[in-house]
Amino acid sequence: MKVIIVTILLSGLTGFAQQPVGRNTCQGAIKIIEGQELNISFPGAKGVEKTNICSYVEKPTLSKNNVWFLFEPVRSGKLYLSCRIYLDTFDLVVVRTNINASCKEIEETKAVPVFIKPNTNCRELENAQIDVEKGYSYTIVYFSKDKDESNISLQVDFQAINMKGDEVLDTLRLNLVYDKSKPIYSIHVLDQETKKPISSRIVISSSSDLDGTYLASDLFMNITRSVKNGVIKVDAEGYLSKDFENHYFKTDGKTNTKDSVYLKKIKRGTVAKLDKIYFQAGSEVILDESLPKLRRLRDFMVLNPTVTIEIQGHVNLDGSKRSSTKLSTRRAKQILKYLVSEGISKHRLTAVGFGFDKPVYKQPVDDDQKEANRRVEILIK
Q1: For the segment 183-212, what is each residue's pLDDT rounded down to a tens digit?
Q2: Which one of 24, 97, 108, 360 is CB 3.0 to 4.6 Å from 372, fit for a cystine?
Q3: Residue 71 pairs with which residues in a beta bridge?
Q4: Are 224 and 278 part of one and the same domain?
Q5: 95 with 56: CB under 8 angstroms?
Q6: CA distance 99 to 103
Q7: Would 181 be classed as within a structural domain?
Q8: Are residues 258 and 292 in the same domain?
Q9: DSSP character string of 71-112
């Protein structure tokens, strides 16, 4: 099984028009997938947790110093949460809810408790297993004591089971077709050069029954209706991530359809543009609309723990050379600060500003060309 190293440092973030939701809240829960190893730093918060997650634990109070995670299994099976560092005791709460309703159902005390361990420790969790079902969300909360900022390394393992309860092996080919008489939609992830299949994480968001997170190189599902404005996100270790927005999942009700996604291998010297990164005019303050793409960059760095990057800022041909260089540098550094706040080691990051020394269009004639000059790029070092 591949292991993905995820380091999450839960600290404050400055420079945004509005600060993002904290990881010690339900709304800020960190999504996890099979095979991850997480190095968690508690935020050091103080006070009593006020949400109804406390109602599932027979304990007078729980600390606000906690970390929330969200696991949405693509298959039914057994989830294993084991520690690799032995620390003081903590409280662990795992509840099941319907997908996209976790916070609401927790507050309404409609969540189903599936694993409650007050005053536990890593040794007790060595052989612990949690039965999970496809089609549900599982909220996992670790509670530490007030002001604690210590780390705890956790291994997230998963073993799929079939309808008989027998364990099944992982496969690159994931067939979720339930009716062969209906049209089938398939997505195939391939190496751009070799055209060979790649085991990937595929996330589909389309407001339809296609939606979900899947681990596969070849995915097959029934498609019951056409959907516009869908989103496909594909990640694979060792490759640049790829997103498709406003994707049209089309079907005529009879014909099978497919999408092929070609991923580019990570190579030193590769430059990739960060789309949809927005700043306040004349400032390095990052606008909230940029957060989805910044999170994707964070996910890429997490998935590829040996990669180091240079964040390059560029601006349009406005103002003096000196002021433009300073502004582009401040913007690049602000993105670096965001990644560090999300747990990416600062030793893997550098930031530079080129001002308008490297424009896409040397003499832009319209707003689109000016916007193309205002950009952030990532250089693989």
Answers
A1: 999 999 998 988 888 889 999 998 888 998
A2: 360
A3: 32, 138
A4: no
A5: yes
A6: 10
A7: yes
A8: no
A9: E--SS-EEEEEEESS--S-EEEEEEEEETT-HHHHHHTT-SE
